[in-house]
Design a protein that fits this description.
Elements (H helix, E strand, L loop, with lengths): L6 E2 L4 E3 L2 E7 L5 H13 L11 E5 L4 H5 L3
Length: about 70
């Protein structure tokens, strides 16, 4: 049985009015977490009701997959 990601990055990223937090298996730098947050932002269509909440993106990839984000 595998464990779930438990490391929550302390910084909440704001892209416009949308706020995104990042949860991973391992600690991240601010730049790495920002890349994941931007990927989450671009990956869906946001509505006005999404603006007042913090949305968490769970990253289940490893460090090699994170390096591919550039």
């Amino acid at each position: 049985m595998t464990s779930l990601p438990r490391v929550t990055h302390p910084k909440i990223f704001a892209v416009g009015e949308i706020r995104i937090g990042v949860i991973t298996y391992f600690p991240l730098t601010d730049a790495q977490a920002a890349k994941i947050a931007m990927l989450a932002y671009r990956g869906r269509k946001w509505t006005k009701k999404d603006q007042k909440q913090v949305h968490y993106q769970v990253w289940i990839g490893d460090r090699d997959a994170l390096a591919l984000l550039g």
